[in-house]
Amino acid sequence: WVLMVTAQTPTNIAVIKYWGKRDESLILPINDSISVTLDPEHLCTTTTVAVSPSFDQDRMWLNGKEISLSGGRYQRCLREIRSRASDVEDEKKGIKITKKDWENLHVHIASYNNFPTAAGLASSAAGFACLVFSLAKLMNVKEDQGKLSAIARQGSGSACRSLYGGFVKWIMGKHDDGSDSIAVQLADEKHWDDLVIVIAVVSSRQKETSSTSGMRESVETSMLIKHRAKEVVPKRIVDMEEAIKNRDFPSFAHLACADSNQFHAVCLDTCPPIFYMNDTIIGCVEKWNRSEESPQVAYTFDAGPNAVLIARNRKVAASLLQRLLFHFPPSSDADLSSYVIGDKSI
Ligand code: DP6
């Protein structure tokens, strides 16, 4: 017999960034962060996990290619979920798995991203969130979402935020064991549904410096990161929570853009410096926002050149797409395509 579970998890985009760890193996951050989870039908990971007595080892395929599960992050997620497995019974198939059986059963995992892997579009976030969630369902783990988020965090920090929709805060926590470093939902997906997120995929190439090694180098060499984590982010988190609660777009846009820019300033302050972002899109959005009474679009960049643009409503999103296509016409060498989140028809 084979028992299977399939789950789909969207990616999330941080508007107050996580950058820097205080514990590398447990993945504990040096500051809180806030993100928005995208609509699941657009950028997401779909993962099927299967268990069968005929499987003789844990195996995983990512986008159709087998990958090694020997890395510490996969092992930790598998171990944490397995240790919380409970009895599973499927009467129709005549399957009965006891808590004890899970110790000796192996899983096969097949995971697909419908967007470029490791091009700075938080693929590890959706990937580990989906892995942890689907394994927890398969093994009948009875923990709450907060606990599952702490397990997903050990796969990739940003993954803990993808277990919720809407606006999500990852609380950095104080404990050495990471038990209070969890994600919480600030507002659900219906709270501010005027917003339209447009992602300009400037390049689908794999990024040169991974987030993991980039943030390690920043923690080791940047002075600015210390000031950011201690002085700047704590206040920004409070202000961002307030902006989200009040659906205050000018404050939201100001904070998101400033935080993205400071994160990239930290990257430049790293030795050797790290360059992720494409600044021509920033120039274009800044000019537009300044020509209006109040900001129309917020931008944020993760560890890659692709721009995440958040328009205050659908009308602005339509005009944004026109501007993007005018200023950055897709050509054979600049692979610019765009995803519109939340409304395919724009
Ligand atoms: C720039 O979560 O990919 O996207 O914890 O080492 O797996 P690891 O890093 P990762 O870093 C994400 C960094 C970021 C900002 C963010 O998502 O908050």
Can you put this structure into words, describing what you see?
- The protein is built from eight helices and 17 strands.
- A hairpin with a 5-residue loop joins strand 15 (297-301) and strand 16 (307-311).
- The N and C termini lie far apart (46 Å).
- It is an alpha+beta fold.
- The strands form five sheets. It has a five-stranded mixed β-sheet, covered by helices on one side. Strands 2-5-12-13 form a four-stranded antiparallel β-sheet.
- The longest helix has 22 residues, at 224-245.
- Mean pLDDT is 91; it is low at 332-346.
- It has helices spanning 72-82, 123-138, 145-153, 211-221, 224-245, 249-268, 279-291, 314-327, and strands at 3-10, 12-16, 21-23, 28-29, 33-37, 44-52, 59-62, 65-67, 88-90, 95-97, 106-113, 167-170, 183-187, 196-201, 297-301, 307-311, 337-341.
- The structure holds ligand DP6.
- Residues 14, 17-19, 27, 33, 122, 124, 156-158, 211-212, 302-303 line the site of ligand DP6.
- Performs the first committed step in the biosynthesis of isoprene-containing compounds such as sterols and terpenoids.
- Its EC number is 4.1.1.33.
